[in-house]
Structures are given as C-alpha cells and as structure tokens.
Amino acid sequence: MAELAKGVDQREPTISVILCTHDPRADHMQRTLDGLRAQTMPLRRWELLVVDNASREPLAGQWDLGWHPNARHVLEEELGLTQARLRGIRESVGELLVFVDDDNVLQADYLEQVEAIAAKDGSLGCFGAARILPEFEEEPSSELLPFTGTLALRDEPTDQRSADPLDWAYPYGAGLVVRRAVADAYVRVVSASRLKMELDRRGDQLNSCGDDEFSWIAIDLGFERGVFRALVVHHLIAAKRVRKVYLLSLYESFGYSRALLLHSHGRPAPQPIPDEEEVDPWWRVARRHLLSGRISAAVRMVRPQGEVDRDTALIKEFEGAQRAGFKRFQRTHLPSAN
C-alpha cells in the first residue's frame, strides 16, 4: 500500500523487448544492453527477456540484468532464431513486442517512439525502423559496398506502409515491433509449418526471411505494416561480414530463403520484373530487382555506369550465388521441377 501511495505504476509492462541471442560477441552484446538501459521510457513500463538460444556457455551467469526490475533470462535449447522468437513470444506479457538482435543498438527514444506510433495508428500490425544504420568494424571495400544491403541495412527517405506483402514496406528483424494479436497468430501458424520453421538463422546457417513472416500474418489479419524514420537502430557489423566470401554466402542463402518464403505462401519463386514496370521511385525498383535476382540491374541504379562496367564479373558472381540459392530451393522442395 505504501508503494501505491507513492504513485508507483503496478500494471504489467505494456512493451516486451525480446533479445534473442546465440553465443553473442561480448562487446556487441554489451553495446546492445547499454542501448536498452539508456532508453528514455521508464523501466517499469517495459520488460526485457534475454532469450539464450542454446549458447555454448549459459548467458545467465555472464550477463547481469539486475539494473532492470522487469528483466530475466530465458533458455531456449532448440537452436534457431525462429525457435528463440517463439519462446520469447510465449514468455512475454506486453501488448507490443520489440525484437532486438545482439548487435542492435536502439536509439534512446526507440521505445517511446514505438508506443507513440502504435497508439496513433491501430491499423499497424507490425512495424519497424526505416533507418538501420551501419557501424562497421571494418569499412567494406568500395567494390563490395553495393552488396552490403543484405546485412539488414536501410535508410529510407520517407516513412513507408502498405498491405501488400510483396512490396518493400516490410520491417526487418532489427527493432521489429509486433502487436500481441499478430505475435500469437505467428506462434500458431509458424509452429504448424515445417517450411516456415526453416526460415531464418540456425547456428552458422544464414537462412533469412523469417521476419517477413510477421508482415504476411499481420496482413492476413487485416492489418498493415510499415517502417518509420522516427525509429533508428545502429547495426554493429563485424569485420568478417563485409568480406566477399561471407557476402556471397549471404546472397546464396537469401535466394534460397526468399523462394522458400514465397513457396510457403503458395506463390511462385521470384521472377525478374519487366523493364516497363519500373514506375516506382528508384530505390523501390532497385530492391525489387535485388529480390528477383537481377543484381546487375539493382547495382546499375545506384552506381555510375563506368563502375558497373568495371565490376561486371563481380556482379555476375553475386547473381550466380543468388541463383544458386533459388536452385537449392528447387532441388530441396520442388524435386519434380528438376
């Protein structure tokens, strides 16, 4: 009663921050936690769940969460980002769920901005950062820089939103915000689908597109989704992730995952868009080229023609990696097509 008299809010937190991690790099994990500790939203109004996804050394003994009154460690023993997200959803209590990776530093007002956007527009089922800005441990070489977009980086010139699951308004996993109704539906739908459970990272496997599934489900429930410039995430990029061998592996896995995502929704594998359909702003067209495997067309829209001509062999190498991912999907899931 004494606490109530002091005006302490006794309600459950309205926002749940779910930090999924597997064998995190210590300095990046510390930066991520420091970013959460610096949030301007009072701690009592949000909870923090650190989901330890089968790390070799248990994280509960390494990271002290005593600074947060509504924080705890959760162990998910089955390896995989999807499995970790499912556990986080089931363990959380908030009406809004914010997913954070162990190399994401949220801007200090992130949670307050999340609350404001959600309160202003109830038609948004999920949304996220329009600005995911890199902090490179090692600057990528100039010839590889155009291929770093698959590192979940973006800096949209405007807010974007839609109810079309195939356009570019979908939020990435870094700072992804999901309403409880969408999160609960995600648990039901994904848990029942062998294909959807295969999306996203699993240890050293670089599968992706699991965050897209939240957008598809939100739209199926009658919501829209989008990204907003008021939401800013700083993405810590380790040196190995800007090396050519890693980026090629990422493109191959992206090709596989994109085809798998579409197949799980009864859609055909990605196809190049005809030139006459290029009526959207250039950045949307470039990304549509990227999603469909026309990497040369995407690069041509952001680099001078001379540089594109010089890097023709490199572009073909990345296109080949993405096509290899498409073909891996066909071999694995469409044997009759081989």
Which features would summarize this protein structure in a list?
338 residues, Spore Coat Polysaccharide Biosynthesis Protein SpsA, Chain A, 2 domains, 10-stranded mixed sheet, 12 helices
Q: Could you please describe the fold and organization of this structure?
A:
- There is one protein chain.
- The protein has 338 residues and is of the alpha/beta class.
- The protein is 38% helix and 20% strand.
- Strands 1, 2, 3, 4, 5, 6, 7, 8, 9 and 10 form a ten-stranded mixed beta sheet that branches.
- Helix 2 (26-37) links the parallel strand 1 and strand 2.
- The protein is globular, with a radius of gyration of 20 Å.
Number of domains in the coordinates? 2
Number of contiguous helices: 12
Low-pLDDT residue intervals, each spanning 5 or more residues: 1-9, 272-283
What level of helicity do the residues show? Answer: 25-40%
The CATH homologous superfamily of the largest domain: Spore Coat Polysaccharide Biosynthesis Protein SpsA, Chain A
The level 1 CATH classification of the largest domain is Alpha Beta
